[in-house]
Structures are given as C-alpha cells and as structure tokens.
Amino acid sequence: MGATYNPSTRGRKHYIVPFMSKLTIATWNVNSVRAHMPVIAAWAEKAKPDILLLQETKTVDADFPFFEFSAMGFPHAATHGQKSYNGVAILSRLPILDVKTALPGEGEDGEARFVSGAVSGVRVASVYAPNGNPANGPKFPYKIDWLSRLASHAGELLRSDANFIFAGDFNIIPEDIDVESPEKWRGDALMQPEARQAFRRLLWMGMTDAWRALHAEGRGYTFWDYQSGAWQKDDGIRIDHALLSPRMADRLVSCEVDKGPRGMEKASDHTPLVVTLECSGEWLA
Asked: How many other β-carbons are positioned within 10 Å of the β-carbon of residue 34?
C-alpha cells in the first residue's frame, strides 16, 4: 500500500493553482533516499523542480522523510515503499490527486515499482522497471512481463486521451548510441532485444522519448557504475527516461541531464533528468 502526505489539501475538494508558465518535472534514481538525503537536498534547493520523481527509495512508507521534503518546498508527496529494495515516490509543490500504486494485473503484494498521481491535470508516474539480470535467468521474464503491463496501462491512458508522463529508471538502454561501451553491455538484460522492443512498443503506441526528441545525436548518460572509474571516464549509459503522451510532447520545452549531483561526494550512481513543459490554463486544474 502507498502513502500520501498532503497536509494543505486534506478535507478540501477544490484547489487554487498558482499561475505557472512552465512546469518542471525531474526524475532521479536516488539509490536510497535516506542515505543520499544531503545530496538530494542540495540539488533540490538549487534546481527547484515543481515535481520530483524518485526511484529506489529503499524504505517503507512509514520511514519516508516526508517532513524533510516538505521543508525543501515539496508539501505534497505520494510514495510506494518497500524495505531495503525498490520504492518510488512523487514529491510536488502542487496537490497530488487520485494516487495509484499498482499497474493493471498487479496485486498488492507486488514489488514497489510504480506510483502515479494527478498533478495540475497531468497524470505523472514514477517508474522503476525491473533490472532483469541475469538475462538468462528467471528475473528477465519478470522484467518483460512488468514492461508489458506498463504498456497496457499506457494504452488505457492513450485511449482516454489523458495528459500523462511516465518517467523514471526504465532499466533499458534503447540504442547503442545510449551507451559508451556497447560491447561491455551486450549480454546485459538492459540491452537485450526483448527489452529494447518493450521500450519501442511504448514509442510506437504514441509516446515520445523527451530527451531523444530534442537530442537526436547526443548520448545523455544518466547512470555511471561505481566500479572501474566509470564516472571519471564518462563510461555511462542512458537508462532514465521521460515518456510523454502526445499533448504533453507538444508542450515539451526542454529535457536535460543534470550531471552535477553524480559528481558530488556520496552520490547516487544515477543523476537527475529534468523535463520542462509549457503550461496552459486548460490543464492547470
């Protein structure tokens, strides 16, 4: 079960939304929210996203640092936690409504990999797809099945003409251009044809890879392993993505990787991906 922290909206049915010309959404696999809180806080204070999506929080909902994030300017939160593993969260400066913590076909005992909520008329989802390694083991079919259920949910939202964003750690390297050393990763679950096909399926359904849409030739790495000096060598991979529904893609202003946090002391092995969308009155409600 997920948890929400919405102190300023409890008991109210209508909300006053401040005027905003742009909406900024950041996604970040923090590799333990409590262990890396100093790095998260320093970056959030500087970047000031409107919505912050976290993955691999690695804590149960009861221990999530709601009050610390509220002090950072995120008074609204929705979490789906799990002890020591997985865990996802939505932190927002604006109210979060209609929170969901499971994909279609997923029971309450499923791993904590998905949480979504409506923020300013946009359904925002924090996604942490299974890693799937080893590729020849039982975890890989689970990865593909989970991605299939994610695609089914995307299809439902597309058919309903909803405004939505799926962002997070998809654990997929979409193309060879998205990895510095392709041969090193060739046998990894992140680069298997079935995983790449699952990612392409989302795009063929009508979603837009926000970073690739604006950076046709760039690499945009979001992860550097702790081992073998990967960060120092810029030996990275692009596995954190923001996928936009058609109308959200029309409002895409920018999508950038902020490498700053990865270079900080005691940092996560991922770094934030930041999407900026143009706002309009019809979906600010």
From this structure: 14
Task: Report which of 80, 153, 83 is spatially closest to residue 123, judged by C-alpha positions.
Answer: 153
Give the pLDDT confidence score for residue 21 in this predicted structure: 86
Joined together, the tokens standing for residue 170 give 């998809």
Q: What is the pTM of this model?
A: 0.94
| Contact (Cβ atoms closer than 8 angstroms) between residue 132 and residue 189 | yes
Contact (CB, 8 A) for 60 and 83: yes
Question: Of the CATH numbers 3.60.10.10, 1.10.10.10, 3.90.1170.50, 3.40.140.10, which one belongs to the domain with range 3-12+21-283?
Answer: 3.60.10.10
Q: Are 231 and 265 in contact (CB under 8 A)?
A: no
The DSSP call for residue 73 is: T
Distances (CA, A) of 43 to 38, 72, 183: 9, 10, 33
pLDDT of residue 106: 78
Q: Rounded to an integer, what distance in angstroms lies between the CA atom of residue 97 and that of residue 101? A: 12
Please tell me the predicted confidence (pLDDT) of residue 2: 81
Query: What letter does residue 62 receive in the DSSP assignment?
Result: G
pLDDT tens profile 198-238: 999 999 999 999 999 999 999 999 999 999 999 999 999 99
